[in-house]
Every structure is written in C-alpha cells, then in structure tokens.
Amino acid sequence: MRETQGTAAEATMKPGLASLFVSVSPHVKNTETVGKIMWTVVACLMPPLILSVFIFGFQTLIITLFSVGSCVATEAISEKLLHRPITIKDGSAVITGLLLAYVIPPGVPYWMPILGGVMAIFVTKQLMGGLGFNVFNPALIGRAFLLATYPVAMTSAWLPPIHHAAIFEYMGKGVDAVSTATPLYLLKHYGIGAVIEKFGSMSTIYGNFFVGWRPGCIGETSALLLLLGGLFLIYKKYITWHIPVSMIVTIAVLTWIFGGEKFFTGNPLLAVLSGGVMLGAFFMATDYVTSPSQKNAKLIFGAGVGALTVLIRLKGGYPEGVCYAILLMNTMVIPLDSWFRPKRFSEGAAK
Amino acid sequence: MNGDTATFPMGGVHPPECKELTNNLSIETMPTPSEVRLVLKQHAGAPCEPLVKKKDKVVEGDLVGSVEKKLGANLHASISGTVKGVVNAFHPIVGKAPAIAISADPQAEGKSYQPVDWRAFSKEELLAKIKDAGVVGMGGAGFPAGVKLTLRPDVKVDTLVLNGAECEPYLNADNRCMIEYSRDIIEGAKIIMTILGINYCGIGVEDNKPDAIQALRKAIEEDTSKNGFKIVVKPLKVKYPQGSADQIMQSVTGRVRPSGVRSSAIGIIVHNVGTTKAIYDAVVLGKPSYERVVTVSGKGIKRPANLMVKVGTSVAEIADYLGGTTPDLAKVVIGGPMMGFAVSTLDIPVTKTTSGVLFLTKDEIDTQPYGPCIRCGFCLEACPMGLEPNNVSIYVEAGRGADTAQFGIDDCFECGSCAFVCPSKRPLVQFIRLAKMKIKESKGK
Q1: What is the ipTM of this complex?
Q2: What is the pTM of this model?
Q3: Which of B339, B344, B290, B345 is nearest to B314 (CA)?
Q4: Which domains does chain B show, CATH number per domain?
Q5: B 240-299 residues with CB < 8 A to A
C-alpha cells in the first residue's frame, strides 16, 4: 500500500510525459515528520546536557555519548537482525540514549549505559515490534534494569556540584571518595532538617535546585532548562500540556497533604524541584508511544504517574519514584485510551 | 481579514492555500474541443441509458441520455456534431466507464439562450426544468439537484445553505463563479427557496475570498425583487474542511446533523454555489447542464486558468489549450489536492463534478514512504468528525478491518485531514476505505 510510481497507460500518454504518481488522497501533506519531531526533542534536551557538564563534570558527556552510541548501534543491529528498515535517522534511538543517560547518576562507570542501551532498544523496543509498538518507555526500562543489576552504583554514584567550572575534577577519581547524597535521600531518611543543613536555607535551595545545582541524575537537575524545553515542545504542538500539568500538580498536592510529619505540612515545591519530576513530566511521560492519545486519558495518566511517584517516595523502598511510576502507568495506556473516546461530531447534535 | 467569521469547532487543518495561481484569473471560455466523451454516470445514482446511436447528428444541448430510475440525471450533448458511439472512457474513480463520444462539427455555431422571467413558473414547473436540465451537485458528490429539492411532504426545511467555502487548496472555480455570476447565484438561490417554500438563505464563503463576499453582498443589495427573501453572506474562517456539508451547516446555522440522517432532518438543504448557477441557467435560460467552470492549476501546467469547459472535454485537450505540461509534472489530480483523485493518464474526460484539474510537480506533492503509527494523536485532533483514524489504521494493518465500526467510520467522509497531519505519512484515508470495504464484506456474509 506504500505510495508507488503509477503505471501510466503509456499508449495514451503524451510524448515527454513520464509515468505519473498515483495514490489515494490527500495528495498534499504537512511538513511535520517523525524525524522532525524527534530531532526537535533532541535539540530541546541539549541545554540540560551542556549544563550537566558544568554541574557534575566532563564525564557526564562521556556517559551520554556511550549511552546514545549504544542505543543507536543497538537499533541498527537489531533492525538488521530482525529484517526491518534501518530507522536510526529518525532520531528516536538518540532520544532514548539521551534520556537513559539523563536518569543515571553522574558517577557510574562508562560501560554501564552501554548495557542499559541494549536493554532499552533491543529488548524493550525492537523485540516488542519496533517504533510504535513498545509498551514501556525504553529509557526507563534501561534504567530499571541497571538499578536491579547494579544497585550500589545506581544508588550511590551521586556527585556534589562542582565549583568554578572545574569540569575535569571528577575524572579518574574513585566515586567513593567524592560521592554525596541526593536531597530526596536525605529527605526520606533524615527529614527536611538534614536537607537544609546540607543545601542551605529554603530560598537558597529553591534557587539552586531550579537552576540545577544539586546532586542528582545527569540530566534531571535543571528544572529551568527542562521547563523551557518542555514549553517549546508545547508551543510547537508536539506535546500537549495535559500530562506534564496533571503529573506535576498531583505530585505537589499529594506531597503537600501527605509529605510532612502532619497532614498538609509537606513541601510541594521541593518535591517538584527534586528527583526526576521535571524530566519525567515533559520528556518521558509524554512519549507518544507509551502514553495515551486522548486528552482526558492523558489527564488521568499524568495524575496516575504523580500519585504513584508520591506513593513510592513516601512509602516505598526508594527515595525517588518517577521512573517506576511512569513504567507502571505505561501498562494503563491501552485501557485508558479505550475508556476515553473522542467526542463524535454527531454527539453535538441538538438534544 | 474580516474579524467576524464563523466556523466549526471540532478538528480541521490548514493546508497551504495555493489559490494565488488562479484566484485573479477571470473565467475564460475554452474553444469547442474536437471531441467530447460524456460519461453515462456523471452523478450519484443509476447510469444514463444512451438515447442516441452511432452516426446520429446532435446539436449542443440535445438530450442524449436519461435515467428511468428515481435517482439519476439527464445527459445532454455539450457540442454539436456526430455521435461516434458508446465507448469506454477513463474515469478518475471507477477506472473505466461507458461514455457517449461525439466528434465536433467544426461548422457548428454555439447555441445562445434567451432569459425568461422565472416567476411565471409554478413550483412544479421550476422543479421539472431543473430535472430536465440534468443539474447535479457540482461540488463533487454529483447528487441530482432535482431529487434533492423533491422533499417528502413530512419533511420541513427552513434554511437554504449555499456552499461557497471552496476549502480545497488550488481551486477557484466557485470563487470565480461567485465573483462573475453573483447575480445569477442570488437569483438561483431565490428559485431554490421558491421551490422549497422558504425564505432564508445563508451563503458560507471562506474569508480568503473577499472579492466573492463583496460581489455577493453587492448583488444582494442591488437586488430589486427581494420579495421577502432574506439572503445573508456569512464569511467563514479559513479551515479545511469548511466546505463539507456537515461542517458548513454547523458554521452557517449552528446546527449539527446527527449520524445517519439527511441534512433535511435538521431543516437544511445545502447546495454548492456552482450548482445554484446551473439551476439558474436551467430555469431562466432553459439551458441544460453541459458546461462548467474548471480550475486548471499547479506548477505542472504552463498556463494555469479558470476555464469554462464543455462536459466531456479531455484533460489532454485542456492541457494542450493551456500550453502543455512542464517536464517536471509528477501527478495529475481530478478535483482538489485533499479529496481529489490521482489519474495515470490525461486521456480522461471532464464530468459535471470536475471542479479542478491539478497538474502537480514533485515538490507540490507528498511522495514519502510511510512508517508505523507512533500514537502521537495528531489525527484525533484533526478529524472534524471526532473519529479515530489511528486505531482504524492499526486494525486494518492487523487484518481486523471488519472490527472498525466501533470507531464510527460510517461518519467518515474521507476529507483527508488525518492523513494530512500524520507525521508518519500514513495513508489513513486508504486504510479507512479498506476498513469500510471489510465492514461491508462482513455484513454481506
């Protein structure tokens, strides 16, 4: 059914006319392509990467390059093995590689993202049928796999932000010597007091965390840059506001209610600026393939991710829950889309 | 342009308008072609029975085909000459179709018609003239106008909507008709309202046609015999598919047609402005419907134009008259680029429903291969009927086309908005057509 060169009736064609294209209407299409959308997302993910070099050092770039390289290579090799068209130019494997690197700590060994990339692309995406058919977000499965197999590195290779742009400070150093704790870890195990003790007054914390100056995964720390990238995608109409807003609002409200020692004493702003909320809300929970298409379903999906995130953060074994919350809600996409159907034209008829 | 524009709220897209190639070109009458082929089925319903045989002499306007059944329309000779017989002609939709071929008599002169006062006729006489003249919906569907205007006694309509939206890119046939035949269209509207026994008519025109809006308003203003008729021009927002019947009814009147009923069930009759002009010609001039305005456009034709063409003229002769095609011609489309039909040959006759012939070069058309659905949901936003083209396509690919009725594809009129926005360039209209076929097959079992 792919568009083919028409088999013109040569006998009746005028001389000089080559065969004509013939296809089903419409004969014109807009300029958006999967590749254009994906590469735009890649561009929106660049500022946080550049900033991460100045927060955690040059090795974040190396980890990201290994992750992207692994994803792209895995995509090409597995498509070759599975006799599928090679689609590495569409940018989707690059996004997976970037996102995988963005959700692992900056002090992990360089080979680790390579393993995660194979898991993300080969198992999660290509074995499920390739682009469009995967149930789970590939990058997050990659992260979950690494967390399960290398729990120590994945939960302790946190680096304190560097100073004076000393971007090679951590190169070649053992992680144990410099590792620190994330704000969510301190909050979970020692309370808000420990966070303030380590990171300064609340206003300093809000400022630093908003810009990105805090321990955390490579690409998750800068709420500012992630927000700008996300808003650009919304402006381009590549994503809608529904999932990010419902997810962030749910996390803020539920943390405010349940996150403190007493009801309604939690800190919603800190909850939103910590961990992977901004990265997850704008760049992971909005992944087309693994999120609902209908607007109302998107609201429920985002709220579900938010609620599960807070549940894991407050009651679960990990300080952060965005990754598992999105993966759990990924399983709900098909049911959500079949429960919420678009409103038909004729339903607007006068009653 | 005009701040106060009406529109339909759900879905829709904005394809590049590409109107500028022909929007300022006056309608030009193409000289009589050497031959015409009158396809026997130019309309919705049953095909005509030919009333002439080989070697018969016919004069422009002679009846050459008619339909016994209720749904159908008369067919008239569009030129004077000699009948060559019933031949197989290429047809943009069905492939090949029987057609009456007439070769032109080079000596024959064009026929002229004298206007009469239509107010002297009764409703029945008006209706009979429209039926006799073989007028069909010229917007594309080709529904016989006489049948549309014959309402069952229990059906009450109160509004005539004239469709001058012309939302398809490139096309200017209706636009030029509204500019150059504005008075005829207003008279035609009054004729239709007289037949229907109503007095309100809303004309919907997309507001990228300010000249047409102005010409119609001027014609209404200067009309000296309003006789209680109220005709209003409604500028509509430029949004495809503004000219679809359901959408223009909603834009002009605010009423929404429930699924599965005719527009008359919500009190509305819709006619295309070109059809209205043909109705005027039929009644006032007594002229049968055998010529029409065709926009010939695209970068693949040397000289784009709005042509008054005899029905049955071959596209090849039109191309010759306009200086031929360019070497980079890649696709020929009968109709507009959103809903028209691509053809593999120029040896194809114009019918009563041919609003445009587009000669498109490779940079004007889409030739990209398609990929898998990435579930972006753009098609859900674009669909003016609130359907789910993404799911239909996935079902069809999985061999479950017969299970797609749940997505409401009976309501789909194949406007192509979904395929226009699909970033994977999926041929969604093709998938939907296949699904409709599969549903029909499974019902037949």
Answers
A1: 0.90
A2: 0.92
A3: B345
A4: 19-23+115-285 (3.40.50.11540), 378-444 (no CATH)
A5: 246, 250, 255-259, 266
